[in-house]
Amino acid sequence: MTFEAVIGLEVHAQLLTRSKVFCGCATTFGEAPNTQTCPVCLGMPGVLPVLNRDAVAFALKMALATGCTIAPSSRFARKNYFYPDLPKNYQISQYEQPLAQHGAIEIGDGPSRKRVGIRRIHLEEDAGKLVHAGAMESAASSLVDFNRCGVPLIEIVSEPDLRSSEEAVDYLKKLRAILVYLDICDGNMEEGSLRCDANVSVRPAGSTVLGVKTEVKNMNSYRNVQRALEYEIQRLTKRLEAGERIVQETRLWDADQGITLAMRSKEEAHDYRYFPEPDLVPVVVDEAWLQPLRAGLPELPDARKARFVGQYGLPGYDAGVLTASRRLADFYEEGVRLHPDPKAASNWVMVELLGLLNRDGLDITESPVAAQDVADLLEAVRSGKISGSAAKTVFEKVYAENRGERGAMAGAAAGRVTVADVIKREALEQISDAGELARIVDEVLAAHASVVAEYRAGKEKSFTFLVGQAMRATRGKGNPKVINDLLRARLARDAGK
Ligand code: ADP
Ligand code: MG
Ligand code: ZN
Question: Is 133's pLDDT higher than 90?
Fold first, then answer.
């Protein structure tokens, strides 16, 4: 019997509002502990929450971007639990009447393209952060930082439409891209701006009923989501194969050991005793609010990808890579605007730039190379000023020498090393002068009479050797096209001799 995995994700995204969801405290990340707090987010008795209009607007943007039906009226509820990161002892969330429901996004390409349903999107507040003095189990004390407490979150709950760890990661990447395109979340998984819990079950292939699920928590990167799901699918499959029953439970991913560990069973699950939040009126969303939000939606990743294929003639793959991140797509389009050769720009950005950025763990917004540098480089190659191989050297030097400078996206700062600087300093300018190259070609032909004879006898490979020798004589700076033309012309001319 073969088995099939079924996965549904619950994703929490921190919204980029300037202030918290129910008070006026700032939401800046990384400030000194407990400096962004007030009686409301500290849960003092007698305080009243006031809903942040921007937080609702941001959530509505995501709901519109994912085709959800938006509730004309939704409600907040209290989710009761005791944990020291939440001083009220309840989290204000949405339960029975969420802001939006029944949307979808698409993942994959070509025949593997599929629709993944979004069950609901609701608004809630984040909790604070516990800092344990040492390992959590053995810490003598724990400190709490309430700066994050009350930061707005949206929870995006998918339908159980995903069938593999790869699909789950694709879905997560697409969700993240949409959030970042909408400018409502920075999408940083390591800093916790985007968090994901995965519900997994396994069933006999072809079955239409859902198996008993486990919920896996504590994965803070795409790689960990992928690894955790693979492990959990394997674990559940083995149990089913052995004829064992699956118990519904919550499990924690342990990245060091590469396993999931039982955290609590269904019997131990919290009863949150949800009830409507009496301190907040229902959220009423009318067409007058939605209309400008709908009109103001930016071009989203799928649409931008399709446009890149149509407008720039890029292969779907390239367009997908370039539009996966909004800032990368912006960078690319800026480069093409400055030097209108879309395919060449795509190659440099996708292969060379992304290669270096990935190697160094940098985001495009931290790129030491600016779009202007890419354009300058393409122009230098096009005009024959430098060769394709020298271009690579120039690119790497511009990248390396501007590292540590301000990110290129912030604008070209004074004192940056430019493409022109490197070409000049390294004397990398290509020799395209036919007279100078002709002299070198003649020397090569004279020095390798036997190879010339072999070529005449029909050994085409000898030609490549002669080109190589001429390139070597110019220390790689000869224009290969001019050298090729000169060699062909001379070998043809001398053929009759
Ligand atoms: P819970 O009440 O435990 O949170 P829900 O039914 O609300 O469970 O679903 C939460 C998430 O789990 C959703 O993303 C949903 O798609 C997914 N899910 C529900 N049942 C299953 C299942 N049997 N297998 C895999 N995922 C599931
Ligand atoms: Mg759940
Ligand atoms: Zn506050």
Answer: no
